[in-house]
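Newbie here. two chains, one complex. Structure please?
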Amino acid sequence: MKFFDCNISFGTLMLRPIRFAETVQELLAEMSYYNISEALVHHAKQRDDSPLIGNEILLKEIEGFDRLHGTLAILPLQTGELRSIEAIMNKMRAKDIRAFWAFPAEHRYSMSRTALGAFYDLMVERNIPLFIHINESCEGLTGWRLIETILADVPDLTLVVTEHGSWGQDRFFRPLIEKYENLYLEISRYELDGGIKDFCKRYGAERLLFGTGFPGWNPGGPILMLAQADISMRERDMIASGNLERILGRVRL
Amino acid sequence: MKLSPLIEEFMQKGRSESCPIIDMHGHLGPYQGIYFPNPSSEDMIRTLDRCGVKMIVSSSHGALIDTRANIEMAKVVKKYPDRFRAYWVINPNYPERMQKEIEQFSKTEGFVGFKFLSDYHKYPITGPRYEPALTFADEHGLLVLMHTWGQSPYDSPSLVEQLADKYPNLTFLMGHSGYGEWEKAIQIAQQHSNVYLELTAAYAVNGVIEWMAKEAGSRKVLFGTDLPWFDPHYGIGCVLFSRISDEDRHNILHRNAEKLIKPYL
C-alpha cells in the first residue's frame, strides 16, 4: 500500500513537541521509517510565524525533493501582504503548489467570505483544496461550528478537516458529510473502533484521507489502523493515497 | 527501511502469535458522548480477534454512571472467561453504598480490582470517600485503574504520588498516564514499584512511549485502548513503530499485564 500523507510538517515550532523533524532531511528520514512515499507538507513557520516567512521557507527547503509537495498558508488579501491572486497563482504554477492551509487563530483573521472571498472564488474555480485543523478558531467560532460556517458560505469548497480527535466526533461531522460533498476528513485521529469501516459502508471511501499529524501525533497509529482496516484493499488504497492524488490531480493551476 | 519482524507481522496479518496482547483498559456498552459501531461484548470479541488481543480488562460504561451496573461485567466475564476480566467501578458520590459494594465485589468472580473515574465523578482520588476502597484494595493486593489527567484537581499524577506510599500493596494503573503531565507521571512510575503507566490515548502523542521506556522502563508501561472507543490497531501501531526494542514492545503489549492479572486467571 502506498501512503501519501496529507498532513505532515517539519521545522521548529514555538512549543517544542517531544519528537520532531527540524530539517527536510530529517522529515524524509521519518517518512522512510514509516514507509510513507509522498507527503503534502507544511512548515512549522507557516503557522507559528507569518505566512510571508513560512511560505518562502517551505518552498525553498523542499525544492528538488520529489516526495514532498508544498502548500501555501493564506491571509486575507486586503492587507496586501500576499500581494494579489495573480501573484499567488504565479507562485503556485512555478512551484506546482496545489493546496492551501488556513491558520486563522494564529494569524488572527476571519474565515468569512467578506475576508477571504477572492481566495474562496479561486479555490472553487480551480479546485484547490483548503486544509484546516479542527481546533482552529476565529471570531468566537471553533470546531465543527466553524467548519459548517465556512461551508455554508462556500458550499462548493474542497475542504479537508485535519486531526478531528478521538472523543466522539461522528455525531458532529456526519451531518456535514451528508450536506457538503466536497468535505473531506483526514484520519490521523479517527481512532474509533470500526469507525473507518462504518464510515465507508455509509459514505464510501472517497471522503477519507490518510494523514499522520506528524510531529504531534505518532504515525504508527493511523498506519497500522488503515493497513488493517476491515474494508476492501481498493478502499484502503483510496484512503492511503488515491483520494489525495485525485484531489490534487484535478487542481487547475 | 527494514522494520522489526514484529512490525512486519502486524502490518501483514494484523496480529502475532508471539505477541498475544492484553488490553488493561477496556469498557463495555454504549456511552453518552460518542457513537460506537462495536459496543457489545460480542462486537468487542470480534475486534479482539482481528487485532490479536488475547484478553481485555473492562469496566462497564453503565457502571461509570450507576455502579449497580457493575454486575453486567460479571455476566460478561462468566460468559467469556478466556477473553474478559473486569474492574469494579467505584463512584465516590454515593459513599453510603460503598461498603456494601465492596462486599459484593469480594463475592463476585472475574474482577481484578477497582476502577476510579475521578475527573468525571468530580471527586479527588485523595479524598476520604475513596479510603474504604483503597484500604480494601491494599489489604488484598488488588489492581486499581485510575483515570489520570495532567493538572487535574481530581486525579493528576501528583495526587497519585500522594497515594502510592500510603497504599504500598495495591497496584496503581495510571490510566492515560496522567495525559499531558508526562514528566511527572513518568517520574512517579519510575520511583514507585506499585505504579504503572497505562497507554490509552497517551500512545498517540509522538515520542511519549520512547520517553516512558527510557525513563520509567518498559516494564512499567501497560497497553490499553478504552475499547469500544479506540481501534486496538491504532494503539498497537503506536507501540510497534516507537523507537524501542522488541523486548520493550513485548513488555508493553502483554508481558507486564500477564504478570499483573495472573492471580485472577
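Moderator note: Chain B has twelve helices and eight strands. The first strand of chain B starts at residue 21 and ends at 26. Thread marked as resolved.
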